[in-house]
Amino acid sequence: LLKNIMNVGTKNNYLKSFILARLQERLMNPTIDLVGSISKYSKIKECFDSLADDVKSLVEKSETSYEECSKDKNNPHCGSEGTRELDEGLIEREQKLSDCIVEKRDSE
After folding, report:
1. How far is Cα of residue 32 from the mean position of the Cα atoms in its chain?
2. Are 5 and 52 a contacting pair, CB within 8 Å?
């Protein structure tokens, strides 16, 4: 599932590199750390139900922000500005995912 989320369809390679870095840092790494010791995926499966759609929405917003920023040809910071909302959204979404995983993992 996480691997599928990393398949970002962004056409702009510059923006894509920023998005993939954020996904790796904010979502993949913390989640892998959490689920590494869980023997039954079925215990935590529901935690991932809306994850792909949530991430897709964040990526689309990031693409829009980047396109708007890119209209100003003198602005060299569009990569970081275009991914600011993505970064904040991923932090929030990962926290929600993390809370769910911990709750399900620790339940009987």
Report:
1. 13
2. yes
Q: What is the largest CA-CA distance in the chain?
A: 57
How crowded is the C-beta side of 16, counted as CA atoms within 13 Å?
9
Q: Per the structure, how many domains does the chain have?
A: 1
Nearest-5° angle of CA 30, CA 32, CA 24? Answer: 60
Domain that holds residue 76: 2-106
> Strand, coil or helix: what is 71?
coil
73, amino acid identity: K
Residue 35 CA, distance from chain mean position:
16
Query: What's the confidence (pLDDT) of residue 108?
Result: 61
Please give the model's pTM, rounded to 2 decimal places. 0.83
